[in-house]
């Protein structure tokens, strides 16, 4: 069903972007895609979807799910992904209109890997503060043992700080270990690593992360890595 009017998806369906429309993807269709993939990646806060598209093209045996509430930004990538593979298509890419704190139920537990690359707005605030709705939403996507990788450009805390971020506490490796780790644990994530990386190191690790950056070559990026554990009782 066409959902380009912003309406809610049908019960048990996922609102996916297809060109300039949002349509319902049934839970059975999604499950078939998941079961047919060797690895499932969820890119949360996917923006224009280009990073998710590159990842899907590089790994045709994976399922890549790009998720963002601002679905019109995903339209161009959706159109490109619908082409034949030899023309740049990516049939293993699904672009979803949703926010981390309000995910469609069929997405629960599908991801082996969750990415949050250079987040902004509610997603950035929720990750930095360890908001239970945002961090819990990320955990809902993940199967047990799944990895979570978060990258945040530290220049957002340097003058001139955007008005929207002036009340956002700076997240450092030390703050992540002391303050954020317990909040992640409450959401079902065990923090494994929190460290600063240069753009060159980021490129050496995963080139698609670096392409999400709109920054100088001397930008320092905070990288958080965690894994999904059973929720505390």
Textual characterization of the structure:
This protein has 8 helices and 9 strands. The chain is of the alpha/beta class. The strands form 2 sheets. A 7-stranded mixed β-sheet has the order 5-4-3-6-7-9-8, sandwiched between helices. It has a two-stranded antiparallel ribbon with strand order 1-2. Helix 4 crosses helix 5 and helix 5 (132-141) crosses helix 6. The radius of gyration is 17 Å and the shape is globular. The chain starts with 12 loop residues before the first strand and ends in a 5-residue tail after the last strand.
Radius of gyration: 17 Å
Residue runs with pLDDT of under 50 for 5 or more positions:
204-210
Percent in strands: 25-35%
Mean pLDDT value: 90
Find the CATH topology: Rossmann fold
CATH superfamily: Vaccinia Virus protein VP39
Which H/E pattern describes the elements?
EEHEHEHEEHHEHEHHE
Number of domains: 1
- How far the N terminus sits from the C terminus, by CA atoms, comes to 39 Å
Structure annotation, total helices: 8
| Biggest beta sheet summary | 7 strands, mixed
Shape: globular
Task: Indicate the percent of residues in helices.
Answer: 25-40%
Corresponding CATH architecture: 3-Layer(aba) Sandwich
